Predict the 3D structure of the following.
Amino acid sequence: MTSNDDVLSLVFKKNEDIEYELNGENIVTILEKQDHKIQRFFRKLKLKIPKYKKIELDKYGSYIFLQIDGKKTVKELGEDLELKYGEKAYPLYERLLLFLNHICENCNYIEKLN
């Protein structure tokens, strides 16, 4: 069982293979390459299959994603989020940890360093 201190001291970095775009409002759109052999086959048949699946993060997710640098801890990310959005970010660490866990474990956009 990990303690709260252990969880708050976790550090994440972006996956080096992840591609993303940033719009004028600092909203992140993740570009997931669709390069499976079946997709390539259908493209050869001239079917319109996009090369990338685009996933747009909301303003909170975008802000946190851009803060992930391989140095900041979860506690520091939470403090940054709270400074930027105040009470709108609450429940702060519950939401933050859920988001970080999802984009780490399910999406592989980020990885744990410690």
The mean pLDDT is 92.
